[in-house]
Amino acid sequence: MLKEERQHSILNEVELHNRVLLTDLADKLNVSVDTVRRDVKELDEENMLIKVHGGAVSLGFTNHAPQRNNVYALDKKIIIAKKAISLLRNNSVILIDGGTTCLELAKLLPTNLKLTCFTLSLPVAMELLRKPNVETIFIGGALSKDSQMAMGPSTIHALSDIKVDYSFIGTGYVDPEFGLTEFDWDVVQTKKAVINASKKTVLLCISEKLNSQHRFKTCHLNVINTMITELEPWDAKLEAFKNLNIQIL
Amino acid sequence: MLKEERQHSILNEVELHNRVLLTDLADKLNVSVDTVRRDVKELDEENMLIKVHGGAVSLGFTNHAPQRNNVYALDKKIIIAKKAISLLRNNSVILIDGGTTCLELAKLLPTNLKLTCFTLSLPVAMELLRKPNVETIFIGGALSKDSQMAMGPSTIHALSDIKVDYSFIGTGYVDPEFGLTEFDWDVVQTKKAVINASKKTVLLCISEKLNSQHRFKTCHLNVINTMITELEPWDAKLEAFKNLNIQIL
DNA sequence: TTTAAACTTGCAAAAAACTGCAATTTGATT
DNA sequence: AATCAAATTGCAGTTTTTTGCAAGTTTAAA
């Protein structure tokens, strides 16, 4: 008997009776209790049922629906997103870049805030669609598999027709002297076009990225109007950024 | 025995019993287990079945779908998607519309098939990004909240620059006399632009939608090159569509 | 608190999967 | 028809996965 068959049977049994004992399953399926235990453990890890001492119960029986987000430094990004939201007014026209910080911004947008919102990022667009008072426009183009964003020539061309009030962008690396830098050339080109399409550009950036750099340069920091980190404004790590004529939140 | 023939037998066996052991197949087909294993691996990559340790299970049988989708008539849509996939060749340039049937098509695209793929639909784009050999281009524009698709003037304009080999579209309603109709005016305009951007248009349509109509007309059926339903070609429900000079799968 | 059942961990045997290679078949081209 | 390149297939050696068992620990119910 295939493992898949066995697990399928286990799921059926759990759905049918809402609860099962490992010993009963082992008996019914003609395998050792250890095997059943391992199966149930796997199914539990796949969120198909919930393992309990001595057996398993069905998902519907409890109120467990954990879609766990595994975002690095999520708490910091939430702080940043909230600060960014404080810049927004009703009927602003904004652009939201990709990356997990910008995604957090999209998630946390107040439902009563009226916005017109451009984006290049598939996940951000998904979130924006859930906001009843946000009109979402996706900037088309070739999609990058790892960043799930539109980028490249046709995206850059589409951006040339746009001028938004604020754009919120992330960056791979930022340094007070070298400015914003990236690992990837396409990303740099696209971010440049985003900045060009904005009256004001807001950089969202967790403190881990401060004072780091890589091979391709997006822009110098003086092109940025506002930089938002999770740090308090008087934090020492921000010292080097304070001479640069940019607003720091 | 030809490879093609053998793989066909394997598929039959899987569909019939929901599960098979590699050893049984090797025995039955008089080839080595390695050969069967390679066949099953290929079929798995083409999303015709799911390879598991020791054998294979049919698509509908899997417990490995963490979030069980609650799509109406999913099994029918899977049949339709498989038929649609049989039209595709390496290096085809295609466009995939929104809707759950088209989404299923995107999900089931073989991982080894090289495609350039345009789409207007956020969920479809998400799926396409998971295919290593598919280059995905999103047609930008204002996003509709309920259909999660780009539509409207800017989308239509972007489509005017494109001519794909095949477009796969869904429809709200279809009738042999009135053709494709929709509830929504914007949708109709966008679908017209999609059809214009295609050398050949393929309609994906579950049988429930046959012989139904609504207020806005996308096009007459003679504009469609191929219509795919889950029905067998000789099904009586398809009778009225057979005079229309369209290929029916 | 006691105690039997359930769990964890490590291990070993068997089954299955993967890898590289060589023999064979297939197909296209001259 | 001859020949070469590519695909297919089976085999042998190695690695991984699965499974049951045993020894020690934890859990939960009386």
From TrEMBL, chains A, B:
It holds the Pfam family HTH_DeoR. It comes from the Bacteria. SUPFAM superfamilies: NagB/RpiA/CoA transferase-like, Winged helix' DNA-binding domain. The keyword Transferase does not apply. The keyword Transcription regulation applies. This is DeoR family transcriptional regulator. It comes from Flagellimonas chongwuensis. Residues 3-58 form the HTH deoR-type domain.
